[in-house]
Write a structure and sequence with these properties.
Blueprint: E1 6-13, H1 18-28, E2 35-41, H2 47-60, E3 63-67, H3 71-84, E4 88-90, H4 93-103, H5 113-133, E5 148-152, H6 158-166, E6 172-176, E7 195-199, H7 202-216, H8 227-243, E8 249-251, H9 257-288
Parallel strand pairs: 1-2, 1-3, 3-4, 5-6, 5-7, 7-8
Helix pairs in contact: 2-3, 6-9, 7-8
């Protein structure tokens, strides 16, 4: 193999460098007879870092491919390519310029956003998977790993609400409760602030259950769709919630999933803010305490 058949491509990125590497590898498939190897520099955010990389590229006559959103750093790289006589390809700059002209707006120039988006995506996928694996009281032994625990009798929208919340990145367990059966002990062992109770008006629940039986082709007689039994079951559940005063109760009657989910997330955010304030106050008090002489 001739010396120039084996070449190195240096990838510079202010993020993970995965985008630049993937695009470059895709292009290299068109040059199958060339022996190419890559060196990737991630999270490059300063001129000093770039200077060091270009010194190496100039010595070995390497090619540079870069995805950098900072206009200042892109201009610095352009200057170095001329000064050091290094071949370089800007994968991000022309696209940002085109979009800027198209939208008539300046880009944010914040590096690493794609990686942050990917992290958010994978967190949501993990939340959905967790929620599906903990539907209808399954795998309750790992209840402590949940962000939200929904408790309610049959047909109070526990499953669809769980799925909706999981799309927001929350790991949800829904626990069905049945009159006459004890609640799982695990329910009282987890952080009680994770528990949210669902209730519904008797007439609404009665209609939902009767419609379900109709779709299944089943008889509407029996306790499941009996009016007095439904009223007794709701009263029992509401009494149970009242005994556990730390469990907030949400009435889902006539509400869209988005409404109930928004109420739950609002409460979660309020609690998060309060915990942060308490933590800051504690730190301030600790700091302000006079030292012993």
């Amino acid at each position: 193999m001739a010396l120039h058949d084996k070449l190195k491509v240096i990838v510079i990125s202010d993020g993970t460098g995965e985008t630049a590497t993937a695009i470059t590898r895709a292009a290299m498939t068109q040059f199958a007879d060339k022996d190419i190897f890559f060196t990737r520099y991630k999270n490059v955010r300063s001129k000093e870092q770039i200077d060091g990389i270009f010194q190496e590229a100039a010595i070995h006559h390497d090619m540079v491919v870069y995805t950098v959103v900072s206009l200042e750093l892109r201009q610095h790289i352009a200057e170095l390519t001329r000064k050091e006589h290094v071949r370089a390809v800007d994968l991000m700059g022309p696209l940002l310029t085109s979009f800027s002209n198209f939208f008539e707006a300046e880009p944010s120039h914040v590096p690493g956003l794609l990686h942050a988006v990917n992290d958010d995506y994978f967190n949501r996928v993990a939340a959905i998977e967790f929620t599906l694996n903990h539907d209808d009281g399954r795998n309750i032994e790992s209840l402590e790993a949940a962000d939200v625990v929904l408790v309610g009798i049959s047909r109070t929208s526990k499953t669809p609400l769980s799925i909706y919340l999981s799309l927001e990145g929350l790991k949800v367990v829904n626990v069905p409760i049945v009159k006459g059966l004890p609640l799982p002990e695990k329910l009282f062992e987890v952080d009680q602030r994770k528990i949210f109770c669902l209730t519904i008006d008797p007439e609404a629940l009665l209609q939902i259950r009767r419609n379900r039986l109709s779709r299944l082709g089943a008889e509407k007689s029996g306790e499941y769709a009996d009016k007095q039994k439904v009223i007794d079951e709701i009263d029992w559940a509401n009494g149970l919630y009242a005994e556990n005063k730390r469990w907030p109760v949400f009435n889902v009657t006539g509400k869209a999933l988005e409404e109930t989910a928004a109420e739950i997330m609002k409460l979660l955010n309020m609690r998060k803010v309060n915990r942060f304030k308490q933590s800051k106050r504690f730190q301030t008090e600790e700091k302000d305490e006079p030292s012993e002489s």
